[in-house]
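Margin note from the TA: students keep mixing up input and output lines. Inputs are the sequences; the output is the structure of the whole complex. Example:
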Amino acid sequence: MVKIYTTLTCPYCEMAKEYFKEKNVSYETYDVSGDEKAQKEMIAKSGQMGVPVIDINNKIIIGFNRQEIDKALKL
Amino acid sequence: MIYDLIILGGGPAGVAAGIYAARKKIKTLLITDTFGGQSVIASEIKNFVGFKSISGLEMAKKMEEHLRAQEDIEIKDGKKILGIEKQNGNFLVKTNNEEFFESKTLFIALGSRYRRLKVLGEEKFEGKGVFYCSTCDAPLMKNKIVAVVGAGNSGFNAAIDLLPYASKIYLLGRSDLLKGDPVVLEKIKASEKIEIITMANIKEIIGDKFVNAIKYEDKKTGEIKEIKLNGVFVEIGYEPNTYLVKNLVQTDEKEKIIVNCKTQKTSCEGIWAAGDITDVLYAQINIAIGDAIKATLNIYDYLKLK
């Protein structure tokens, strides 16, 4: 299960989403600027507020970090 | 396998070099983490020649597409470069997963990264109220009090990015000059939300779990002042990503690679560089591309004679 916490204006979030599409990984998007519950969830999971935060099967990755994403998805 | 050329970086300079190298049929490998470089965070680029207006992300995509359309180039993206060494006249590039790549020549286009304030609390609160990408993180500052540190164009743009969200924005400049574009300054001065503070020397970022204040010295009076706030956006420019090559090539006092502006050669034989990592006078996408092409053509001439 892949979740991505984003804001609408964040380019690195877009890059991450496109990467998932390219790799045929399905994901759920949460816009934390409009969704307070999602924002709280993201802060609780990552201990910080910067986006994107990516949750891959409970492994929390801050930022579009390809090396960490590849590891978590075993690509 | 020994490549003729390894290109380090996938920003405008790296991609331009890749396209030219492929068309010259130089045996080339391009290594990068992502494409587009620093410019991906720009919401709008209006001076990239041939495009009236394009987002940084869109530009990055077009560049990657153009590069991947070349037949004669190998690309490894998603890679972190961990080390660069000279060995028996060739160059050895180490990436994550313990991979090594060898080449006769190197083109370095690793660009720059956000300059840090280097004050107490900055590192501790990164992402916890200290931010470097206003395009990304401004929407999280809804009804919050924030400071933008830096009164150049990046600072101005960050203040504009924050306008729809923050309840109050302090724009702090180190000198008494506001260096950003006059057009944007007009917008800033017109907003009641934004308060400009000049001659401010940031001393400390304070907080508990998250940032709750900033401390600065008012250089006019020498007084130490504190502002209660929720977010600090650091917008004081960029520093070059030279930490991997500092021992190989000569750099200037700002740690930028010194290049010959005719050929883009560095002080080390076999290494060329272009873009924001060099001592180029103007950090511009269009210039980085031109300089990268100059370098690639010079590398082609060099390899022919070797």
